[in-house]
Design goal:
- This protein has 179 residues and is mainly beta.
- It is 11% helix and 31% strand.
- It is built from two helices and ten strands.
- It has helices spanning 34-42, 142-151; strands at residues 9-14, 22-24, 30-33, 48-61, 75-86, 94-96, 110-114, 128-132, 139-140, 165-166.
- The strands form two sheets. Strands 1, 2, 3, 4, 5, 8 and 9 form a seven-stranded mixed beta sheet that branches.
- A hairpin with a 6-residue loop joins strand 8 and strand 9 (139-140).
- The protein is globular, with a radius of gyration of 18 Å.
- It starts with 8 loop residues before the first strand and ends in a 13-residue tail after the last strand.
Length: 179
């Protein structure tokens, strides 16, 4: 996947009443609002890299709004780090199209995810990261979850990893390992 290089310019599309504190960007990039950025740094959370200012060129509303003008916060582009935490290959409910050939990346042909857990002893304590074996998934710590709730940050849905489901072909969970 290509890295987003400066200048960082975006055109946003508004789906609700106001822009959120967290917006998915291209590739692994994410946009976070200035209040999010300031609180993240002040509390010493870890796992985000970058913090480059973004120029918002335009905001297009999905629905015509009468009256209230849209407030556009300042945004920064960040990327969640690739952590050392690894998906547990034995205890997961993940269906793979073929066996893993790389014990480092652990991500060969994922067909369905019906919950996952991290291998004990592999997590380095980052508050937000992409684990080995689930590079397209952002995982956050309990501390990060509490941070989001405490600051009322918007446009994020947090799902416990054991309840996370991505199953486009309705294959269902992988069979549990035989003890």
């Amino acid at each position: 996947m290509r890295t987003w290089l400066p200048p960082y310019r975006v055109k946003l599309e508004l789906h609700g009443e106001e822009l959120g504190d967290f917006i998915r960007g291209p590739g692994y990039a994410q946009l976070i609002s200035e209040p999010f950025t300031e609180a993240f740094r002040a509390e010493g959370l870890t796992g985000l890299e970058g913090f480059h200012p973004v120029e918002v060129l335009r905001v297009r509303a999905r629905k015509k709004k009468a009256g209230k003008p849209i407030t556009v916060p300042r945004y920064y582009v960040v990327s969640p780090c690739f952590g050392r935490a690894a998906v547990d290959l034995v205890l997961n409910r993940v269906r793979f199209s073929k066996p893993h050939s790389c014990s480092e990346c652990r991500s060969t042909g994922i067909e369905a995810i019906n919950g996952f857990i991290l291998e004990p002893g592999t997590w380095g304590g980052e508050d937000i990261f992409r684990p080995r074996g689930m590079q397209g998934v952002i995982v956050v710590s309990e501390r990060f979850k509490d941070f989001i709730n405490r600051h009322g940050l918007t446009n994020m849905v947090l799902t416990p990893t054991e309840q996370y489901v991505w199953d486009p072909s309705n294959l269902g969970p992988a069979p549990l390992p035989i003890a």
